[in-house]
Amino acid sequence: MKIEGAVALVTGADRGLGQADARELVRRGAAKVYGAARHPGQVTEPGVTPIGLDITDPGRVAQVAEQCADVSLLVNNAGVLKYSTFIGAPSLDAARQEMETNYFGTLSMCRAFAPVLAANGGGAIVNMLSVTSFYTNPFDASYGASKAAGWSLTNGVRLELHHQGTLVIAVHAGFIDTEMAALVDAPKISPQSMAQQICDAIEAGQVEVLADERTRFVKASLPRDHELIYPPVQEFWDAALKGSP
Ligand SMILES: NC(=O)c1ccc[n+]([C@@H]2O[C@H](COP(=O)([O-])OP(=O)(O)OC[C@H]3O[C@@H](n4cnc5c(N)ncnc54)[C@H](OP(=O)(O)O)[C@@H]3O)[C@@H](O)[C@H]2O)c1
């Protein structure tokens, strides 16, 4: 799909990767870029049109799809990470919030915009997922579950929208240098280079982006995950438990 001349909508465009995506789309000549955010006043990127949107509010999602009927490229970037374990977490609150945003919010956006994209020639949907779509890490276990659900939904939406010519792209990445990963001391990709990979995939018609070495390794290792992926994760988790008070 050509970005030049397209009309895009990016969720979570006020900061982090969403802001970088919106900037890159403007740079590549998109005719219009809607920057959707819970606080639209914080969308300050030049050339981006702010629009108020909480993706967990189905009524507002429907209104925005009606208001932005010219969209041909939907970038589902908004997401939350609560660093919550399955068993040790004090309640299900974090798991529910992650599922509500990362899975149901993204699904609700895909459903609302599917007819808009069809009316505009098919277009494309980009769903921002994670390396944790492919395996579970206890440190962000319920986040991983929401991204695994997002991976499944992305594959399903691609099948259901094939008939209308919509390109559906799953983007999986390890750590990206944004507020979400601020607590993490590990190699991170810059939001700018991530946005470039996403835009390259849109223009090349790719269905999947595996953004870094770790993500490529994990996906390639899935047939042998209990040999290659989980033993070091278990070791790290056990060591962290021993070190905790
Ligand atoms: N950073 C990483 O290491 C990493 C790695 C892999 C994948 N990802 C994914 O990349 C995407 C972007 O994350 P980021 O790194 O840019 O994180 P970030 O800096 O924390 O930004 C998250 C964005 O999502 C928005 N958001 C959260 N809940 C929302 C809701 N209910 N409705 C609308 N917007 C909402 C936030 O808006 P507010 O400003 O209103 O909070 C913010 O704009 C997420 O899907 C994340 O899961 C991140």
What does this structure look like?
Strand 6 (167-172), helix 5 (191-204) and strand 7 (208-210) form a beta-alpha-beta unit. Strands 3-2-1-4-5-6-7 form a seven-stranded parallel beta sheet, sandwiched between helices. The chain has helices spanning 16-27, 58-67, 93-119, 141-161, 191-204, 213-220, 225-228, 230-243; strands at residues 7-11, 32-37, 48-52, 73-76, 124-128, 167-172, 208-210. The mean pLDDT is 98. It is 45% helix and 14% strand. By secondary structure, it is of the alpha/beta class. It contains eight helices and seven strands; from the N terminus they run βαββαβαβαβαβααα. The N and C termini lie far apart (53 Å). Helix 1 crosses helix 5, helix 2 (58-67) runs parallel beside helix 3 (93-119) and helix 3 runs parallel beside helix 4. Bound molecules: NADP nicotinamide-adenine-dinucleotide phosphate. NADP nicotinamide-adenine-dinucleotide phosphate (NAP) binds at residues 11-12, 14-18, 37-39, 53-56, 77-81, 101, 105, 128, 130, 173, 175-176, 178-181.
Quote the average pLDDT.
Answer: 98
Shape: globular
What's the helical proportion of residues?
Answer: 40-55%
User: What is the count of helical runs?
Assistant: 8
Heteromolecules bound: NADP nicotinamide-adenine-dinucleotide phosphate
H/E order of the elements?
EHEEHEHEHEHEHHH
Strands of the biggest beta sheet: in what spatial order? Answer: 3-2-1-4-5-6-7
Quickly give the structural class.
Answer: alpha/beta
Largest sheet: 7 strands, parallel
Low-confidence stretches: none
Distance between the termini: 53 Å
- Which band does the percent of strand residues land in? 5-15%
Estimated radius of gyration: 18 Å
Number of strands: 7
